[in-house]
């Protein structure tokens, strides 16, 4: 018996993830290279949304803590907390925003798996140093205004609570709104 079509068309590493899809590249290699080189690693739109929202809620923070592993996007020493805003594609979240390019899928598989391993290592190092970590996924910041408000309120309440490290993703918002 042969495998289902969707299983044969996906790389082995993502066959178990139903939400990860392959996408075709619609531009030539030189254009794609130029586009990819313009992608920023800090001061991104999702990061600005989190900064603006937490600042409006009274939190003060430092940016890109250079003395901490992984250079967290926001560092709040008063709360012993580091906030990381992760892009769903670059950190292979597995949500609807994660699509593996069809061009050079083996390269992208290795790249994204390496990113995930590095993220896990850096979060462990931060926790070992006594920092609490909050990972806010890009998908939690994209969508209706009430979803953004929910994400920022969740982040603010987590900071005030001194709970252990956690993540906020779009699924948190959909679970909460479904319960209402």
CATH topology: Endonuclease, Chain A
**Main sheet?**
5 strands, mixed
Alpha plus pi helix count: 6
Give the full name of the CATH homologous superfamily: VSR Endonuclease
The N- to C-terminal Cα distance equals 44 Å
What layout of secondary structure does this protein have?
Blueprint (H helix, E strand, L loop, with lengths): L4 H5 L11 E3 L5 H9 L7 H12 L5 E2 L10 E3 L4 E6 L12 E3 L3 H24 L3 E6 L7 H17 L4 E3 L1 H10 L1
Parallel strand pairs: 1-5, 4-6, 6-7
Antiparallel strand pairs: 2-3, 3-4
Task: Please explain how this structure is put together.
The protein has 180 residues and is of the alpha/beta class. It has one domain: 3-Layer(aba) Sandwich (Endonuclease, Chain A), CATH 3.40.960.10. It is 43% helix and 14% strand. The chain has 6 helices and 7 strands. The strands form 2 sheets. The protein has a 5-stranded mixed beta sheet, with helices on both faces. A two-stranded parallel sheet has the order 1-5. The radius of gyration is 18 Å and the shape is globular. It starts with a helix and ends with a helix.
Summarize the structure.
It contains six helices and seven strands; from the N terminus they run αβααββββαβαβα.
Summary keywords:
globular; 6 helices; single chain; Endonuclease, Chain A; disordered N terminus; 14% strand; 180 residues; alpha/beta
